[in-house]
Backbone:
């Protein structure tokens, strides 16, 4: 099981849970009285959530009853806008719980997640399957062309109407009952899948006793491993985990091939070990239930259902994009394989490259070929300096400034909070950064809103956003030093935060990053383009010991190596996108052998055995635990957009104020208040083409 989190919320039932009235002491029911009205994390306990969820549901049901029983004919204000304004408490509790359960969880919160998911699934179905409420919305929708609605109001009406239809409102009563059952089961299965991945990740530790087995590893990684082992009862030893800041550097630098193999195989078998955290049966049930739900609603399969509201529109368009990129990416990866194997042959010549060797030998190849390695760059990428670089780009583009706050509530002592300000000093919002891994935190990187932007009574509700990453912790010997990919990750998640913070919409439902799945990555991915621009690098890349600005020679090497290993990176990502689509284009899945299905999917596209798909099915949280089902392709779809968008900046200057203003006004501020392609064309003047992406990636077709 997940180790107890002694810094987090209690895992046991406390006496005041039993003796106190439901409203007494529950922070969600009272004014926060905190700076910027931020949730008082130190007062929120695990047992507060379920009562707060239930109270939030109760209040929204009362608000919906008022809409349903309104004797006035349905119109936009008394039906659609009234529904949008309902459920304020429930939204608040959901946002806080989502952030905490992902970033600072424990066994009690994981259990709460299962109970909450059932409550929320029932409540969502109660809303969508309320015939009178749907009748009112439908009446407004049928006369929408005569209502003189603004563009944003039209989008809100369209969004609600289609959500109700997709939520089963048009189904006959008998099928509605089955629809409810499916939604309840899916809500629970997703939570179980996520928890199993987290728990299986925490269940593994490679404990090294022989100092000779540390050969090749950076000192900072060794020191961190010693600290980790000490904390877990292994003094004098070294412990390595499957968390990214630990595992990938181990694969890059460990000279012990057998140990690289051990940690790599542990990672690629997450959720696939036949233990209590095994996800195979869970994911097959998810696939069957999603397919059944899609058929109930009249769709051929889940992909058709999922993609209906995305820019891609259909599975054929997704496969077409993937196919355009797969062949040149695979050919590039095979060339990279040839170079790596040649290096191995020169050094020892007695084995064939295996997947757990790729990171180690590609790093050696880069050093041999370009006189550049990860160590060399990390020295210039101190976390605090990179953060300054992120803020520098935001100031140059959008005039934003960032003021660190030390007196606001934080859910963990390592979290840092900043007030975001316009150039004139006016308040924009609050941004939290959660940089480091811990057992209670999910792996990966993400942005999550604690409060979304909206307008209430004419006033702007300022957003609160969190950026979550998993970087190497500082030690007594060294600060947190990033590699180039981690620098890009910080810029990426910050782009998501900008989408949330700079939002200027009327309705919370449409604000910030509440956009089509294959549009949401545009603001994040476009930010990565500034990372290797010389002007930007010279601003933030400074040697952590000497303060020396990164030399021009090193910048040139970074830019010359921007296509290095791109075939590998592209192939492992595209393979995962194909796997996602193959799972969700199953029309009527029966009994499935997960491993056999996955192998057939990857064999079909010709994935070479030296590369493993980025996420194997049993730990593919994006599609089985998160919101990217039939949508993992979104990252490359958005790459087409972001490469084309950055061309606009390159044409006028990467900090051109007019171009930045167009991007802010038409993309970052608008959320889902208009069709995403309409918004993009307003910024760019035309639809995007694939050419800039192919050129940036070094691919040819």
Residues:
């Amino acid at each position: 099981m997940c180790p107890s989190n002694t810094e987090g919320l209690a895992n046991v039932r406390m006496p005041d849970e039993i003796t106190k009235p439901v409203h007494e002491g529950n922070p969600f029911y009272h004014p926060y009285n905190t700076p910027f009205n931020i949730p008082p994390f130190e007062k929120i306990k695990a047992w507060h959530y379920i009562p707060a969820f239930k109270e939030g549901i109760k209040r929204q049901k009362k608000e919906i009853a008022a809409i349903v029983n309104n004797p006035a004919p349905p119109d936009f204000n008394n039906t659609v806008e009234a529904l949008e304004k309902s459920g304020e408490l429930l939204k608040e509790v959901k946002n806080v719980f989502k952030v905490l359960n992902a970033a600072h969880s424990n066994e009690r919160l994981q259990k709460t997640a299962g109970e909450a998911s059932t409550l929320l699934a029932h409540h969502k179905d109660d809303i969508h399957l309320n015939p009178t409420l749907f009748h009112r919305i439908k009446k407004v929708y049928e006369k929408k062309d005569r209502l003189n609605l603004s563009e944003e109001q039209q989008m809100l009406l369209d969004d609600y109407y289609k959500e109700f239809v997709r939520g089963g409102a048009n189904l006959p009563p008998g099928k509605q009952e089955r629809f409810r059952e499916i939604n309840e089961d899916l809500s629970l299965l997703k939570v179980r899948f996520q928890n199993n991945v987290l728990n299986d990740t925490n269940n593994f530790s490679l404990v090294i006793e022989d100092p000779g087995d540390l050969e090749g590893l950076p000192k900072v990684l060794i020191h961190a491993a010693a600290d980790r082992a000490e904390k877990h009862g292994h003094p004098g030893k070294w412990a390595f985990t499957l968390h990214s800041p630990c595992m990938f550097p181990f694969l890059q630098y460990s000279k012990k091939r057998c140990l690289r193999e051990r940690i790599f195989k542990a990672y690629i078998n997450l959720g696939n070990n036949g233990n209590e955290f095994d996800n195979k049966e869970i994911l097959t049930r998810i696939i069957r239930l999603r397919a059944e739900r899609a058929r109930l609603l009249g769709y051929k399969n889940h992909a058709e259902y999922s993609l209906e509201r995305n820019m891609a529109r259909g599975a054929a368009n997704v496969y077409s994009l993937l196919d355009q990129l797969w062949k040149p990416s695979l050919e590039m990866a095979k060339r990279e394989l040839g170079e790596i194997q040649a290096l191995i042959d020169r050094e020892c010549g007695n084995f064939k490259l295996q997947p757990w060797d790729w990171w180690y030998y590609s790093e050696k190849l880069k050093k041999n070929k370009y006189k550049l390695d990860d160590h060399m760059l990390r020295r210039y990428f101190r976390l605090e300096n990179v953060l300054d670089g992120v803020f520098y780009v935001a100031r140059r583009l959008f005039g934003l400034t960032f003021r660190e706050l030390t007196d606001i509530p934080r859910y963990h002592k390592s979290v840092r909070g900043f007030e975001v300000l316009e150039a004139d000093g006016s308040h924009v919002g609050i941004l939290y950064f959660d940089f480091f891994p811990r057992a209670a935190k999910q792996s990966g990187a993400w942005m999550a809103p604690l409060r979304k932007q909206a307008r209430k009574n004419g006033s702007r509700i300022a957003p609160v956003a969190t950026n979550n990453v998993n970087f190497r912790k500082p030690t007594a010997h060294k600060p947190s030093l990033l590699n180039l990919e981690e620098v890009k990750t910080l810029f990426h998640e910050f782009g998501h935060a900008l989408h949330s913070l700079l939002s200027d919409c009327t309705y919370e439902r449409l604000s910030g990053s509440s956009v089509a799945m294959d549009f949401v990555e545009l603001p994040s991915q476009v930010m990565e383009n500034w990372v290797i621009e010389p002007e930007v690098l010279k601003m933030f890349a400074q040697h952590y010991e000497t303060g020396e600005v990164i030399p021009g020679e090193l910048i040139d090497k970074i830019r010359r190596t921007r296509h290095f290993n791109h075939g590998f990176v592209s192939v492992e990502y595209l393979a995962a996108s194909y796997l996602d689509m193959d799972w969700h284009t199953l029309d009527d899945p029966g009994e499935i052998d997960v491993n056999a299905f996955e192998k057939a999917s990857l064999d079909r596209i010709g994935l070479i055995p030296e590369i493993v798909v980025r996420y194997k099915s049993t730990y593919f949280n994006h599609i089985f635990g998160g919101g990217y089902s039939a949508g993992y392709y979104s990252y490359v779809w958005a790459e087409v957009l972001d490469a084309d968008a950055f061309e606009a900046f390159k044409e006028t200057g990467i900090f051109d104020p007019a171009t930045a203003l167009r991007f802010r006004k038409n993309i970052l501020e608008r959320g889902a208040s208009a069709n995403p392609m309409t918004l993009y064309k307003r910024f760019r003047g035309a639809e995007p083409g694939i050419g800039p992406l192919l050129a940036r990636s070094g691919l040819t077709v």
Notes: The two ends are 48 Å apart (CA to CA). Residues 1-21 have pLDDT under 50 and may be disordered.
